[in-house]
């Protein structure tokens, strides 16, 4: 493929009205009729495999039965009691790999119950109701907990702690709270500013003070928080990105996919965002898919997503891969990036080396393929990248924080969860599970310090006022 010495990178590739159409909700909510019909497909299994497959263990048959009874408030309560970010998770969870994959209907008719869409139907109805707050705080314990990071893990931890009666200080480095939900997901997954709507609902429990623009930059800051608070939770995500480490990476037109997605999410005018006519996305995960599809939606003519291994090794789900291809993204496999070439300081192409498995190891075949590119987006993973953590005495596992099963770290009184915690799946729903799990462990530690090995269980009983219909 030939390369161009005149990079074509510019805004306003589409008509003004077309941007809103292209970035509309990727999976619009079900109508009442659709939801009732879908709910009736559920077999309400005893010991349901779908509930076991959910990292937050939502009682799926219970909430779906309530939808079938048109009791949306009760359905939403069942969801949010288990997963306080159930609205966002309904939008972004890879349900095809979790609850829906093990749905009994899949084996019977090859069509699982649309659990994710039903979950969104119930939670959206609650959020838009006259009284969306369904939980109240327990009596004050007089204990204070600091939570670093207002992403999914931190928000779930803060909300759970507040419900239990603790006072929470929630700190975040960004201008807005929400973490990945606000800055890292495709716009078509989180339309109508839903991340902030859900945030306000979470803060509505009371007992949570939010401070944005706070960055963890010294070990002294961490020491001060440990001294001033009864416990500390780290949900700081992964702030740094991996680099390709190859020639041409610093050319204009080359940027991290996470920065591209964040800029798009915060843009008030999508037409003003510059996009290349030819875009190459390097990576095989969901971030790569989100970047590639949105590049296409912004008006790029040719978008290529390139991964160094085969389709089975891609971390993006099969559904995500199909979504990319449906939107005109060409996916290449077995190609490893070698060099970004350019002209006048701007990227114009990427050279890739063909890979093959030899005795289970990736080896170069010697074949080189070149893809023209006005814009190159790197989506090769993120890392913690904060030396303060190790300097503070935290035990690390690789580049992430080592913890026990409930998130307790090597430092007394400090827990961690979400992507910064070693050994995870890097899913929003898992981060929520970590946050809630650690909150319960923190509560047990604060209220019963001599019996800190047990983790209390949050009641799943539906409050009386939540049993009525919306």
Q: Which superfamily, in CATH terms, is the homologous superfamily of the largest domain?
A: FAD/NAD(P)-binding domain
**What is the CATH topology descriptor of the largest domain?**
FAD/NAD(P)-binding domain
Largest sheet: 5 strands, parallel
Judged by helices, strands and strand pairing, the structural class is alpha/beta
Beta-sheet strand percentage? 15-25%
Residue share in helix: 25-40%
Quick structural overview:
The chain is α/β, with parallel strands linked by helices and 470 residues long. The protein has helices spanning 16-22, 32-39, 49-53, 60-68, 72-82, 86-92, 104-109, 115-127, 152-163, 180-183, 194-203, 219-228, 257-266, 286-297, 318-326, 387-391, 428-447, and strands spanning 9-10, 144-148, 167-172, 208-212, 231-234, 240-241, 254-256, 275-276, 278-282, 302-306, 329-332, 335-343, 346-358, 361-372, 375-378, 382-383, 396-397, 400-401, 414-416.
Descriptive labels:
5-stranded parallel beta sheet; globular; single chain; FAD/NAD(P)-binding domain; 470 residues; Fumarate Reductase Iron-sulfur Protein, Chain B, domain 2; alpha/beta; 3 domains
Description:
The chain is an alpha/beta fold and 470 residues long. The chain folds into 3 domains: 9-24 and 242-381, 3-Layer(bba) Sandwich (FAD/NAD(P)-binding domain), CATH 3.50.50; 32-133, Alpha-helical ferredoxin (Fumarate Reductase Iron-sulfur Protein, Chain B, domain 2, Orthogonal Bundle), CATH 1.10.1060; 144-239 and 384-447, FAD/NAD(P)-binding domain. The protein contains 17 helices and 19 strands. The strands form 6 sheets. It has a 5-stranded parallel β-sheet with strand order 4-3-2-5-19, sandwiched between helices. A 5-stranded parallel β-sheet has the order 7-15-9-10-11. Helix 4 packs antiparallel against helix 5 and helix 6 (86-92) packs antiparallel against helix 8 (115-127). The radius of gyration is 23 Å and the shape is globular. Residues 453-470 have low confidence and may be disordered.
């Amino acid at each position: 493929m030939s390369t161009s010495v005149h990079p074509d990178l510019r805004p306003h590739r589409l008509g003004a009205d077309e941007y809103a159409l292209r970035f509309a909700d990727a999976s619009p909510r079900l109508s009442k009729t659709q939801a009732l019909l879908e709910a009736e497909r559920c077999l309400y299994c005893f010991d349901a495999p779908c509930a076991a497959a959910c990292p937050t263990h939502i009682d799926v048959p219970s909430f779906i039965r309530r939808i079938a009874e048109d009791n949306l408030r009760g359905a939403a309560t069942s969801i949010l009691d288990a997963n306080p970010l159930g609205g966002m998770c309904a939008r972004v969870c890879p349900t095809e790999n979790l609850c829906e994959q093990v749905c009994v209907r899949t084996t019977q008719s090859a069509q699982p119950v649309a659990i994710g869409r039903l979950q969104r139907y119930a939670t959206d109805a609650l959020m838009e109701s006259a009284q969306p707050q369904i939980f109240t705080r327990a009596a004050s314990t007089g204990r204070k907990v600091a939570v670093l990071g207002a992403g999914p893990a931190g928000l779930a931890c803060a909300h759970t702690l507040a419900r239990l009666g603790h006072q929470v200080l929630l700190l975040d480095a960004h201008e807005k709270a929400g973490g990945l939900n606000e800055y890292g997901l495709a716009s078509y997954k989180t339309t109508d500013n839903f991340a902030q709507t859900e945030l306000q609902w979470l803060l509505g429990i009371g007992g949570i003070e939010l401070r944005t623009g706070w960055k963890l930059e010294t070990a002294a800051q961490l020491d001060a928080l440990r001294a001033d608070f009864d416990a500390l939770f780290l949900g700081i995500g992964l702030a740094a990105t991996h680099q390709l480490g190859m020639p041409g990476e610093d050319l204009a037109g080359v940027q991290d996919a996470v920065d591209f997605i964040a800029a798009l999410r915060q843009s008030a005018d999508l037409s003003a965002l510059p996009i290349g006519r030819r875009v190459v996305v390097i990576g095989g995960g969901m971030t790569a898919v989100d970047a590639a599809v949105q590049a296409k939606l912004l008006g790029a003519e040719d978008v290529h997503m390139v991964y160094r291994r085969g389709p089975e090794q891609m971390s993006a789900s099969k559904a995500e891969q199909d979504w990319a291809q449906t939107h005109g993204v060409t996916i290449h496999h077995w190609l490893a990036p070698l060099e970004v070439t350019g002209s006048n300081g701007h990227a114009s192409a990427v050279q890739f080396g063909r890979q093959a498995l030899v005795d289970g190891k990736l080896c170069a075949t010697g074949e080189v393929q070149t893809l023209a590119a006005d814009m190159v987006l790197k989506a090769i993973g993120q890392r913690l990248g904060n030396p303060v953590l190790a300097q503070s005495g935290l035990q690390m596992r690789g580049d992430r924080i080592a913890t026990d099963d409930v998130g307790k770290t090597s430092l007394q009184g400090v827990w961690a969860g979400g992507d910064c915690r070693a050994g995870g799946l890097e899913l929003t729903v898992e981060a929520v599970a970590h946050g809630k799990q650690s909150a319960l462990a923190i509560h047990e530690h604060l209220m019963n310090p001599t019996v800190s090995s047990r983790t209390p269980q949050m009641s799943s009983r539906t409050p009386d006022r939540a049993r009525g219909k919306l």
